[in-house]
Amino acid sequence: MAEHEKEVIVTREGGSGGLIAVVVLLLAVIVGLFFFFGGNLMGDGKTDINADVKIEAPAVPAPSN
């Protein structure tokens, strides 16, 4: 008896819409967490800035009329 070869072609009939939806949802969760935690996920949360600034300017004489 002779062997019969049969070629099977498997096709996928779906788009990549599900993958795009998952990526968009994942990005939305990441952005939401960023805003929820105040954009300071890696920092220590301290925002105190102690600045002692002294500006000295020469006196300007008053204009004479």
Describe the model.
- Helix content is 31%, strand content 0%.
- It has 65 residues and is an all-alpha fold.
- The radius of gyration is 34 Å and the shape is rod-shaped.
Write the layout of secondary structure elements.
Blueprint: H1 17-36
For the termini, the CA-CA separation is 124 Å
**Uncertain residue ranges:** none
Sheet with the most strands, sense and barrel status: none
> How large, in whole angstroms, is the Cα Rg?
34 Å
Order of helices and strands: H
Q: How many separate helices? A: 1
β-strand percent reads under 5%
Could you say which structural class the secondary elements and strand pairing correspond to?
Answer: mainly alpha
- Tally of strands: 0
Helix percentage range: 25-40%
Query: Shape, please?
Result: rod-shaped
Average pLDDT rating: 81
Q: Descriptors for this entry?
A:
65 residues; mainly alpha; 31% helix; 0% strand; rod-shaped
Describe this structure in a few short sentences.
The chain is an all-alpha fold. The chain is 31% helix and 0% strand. The N and C termini lie far apart (124 Å).
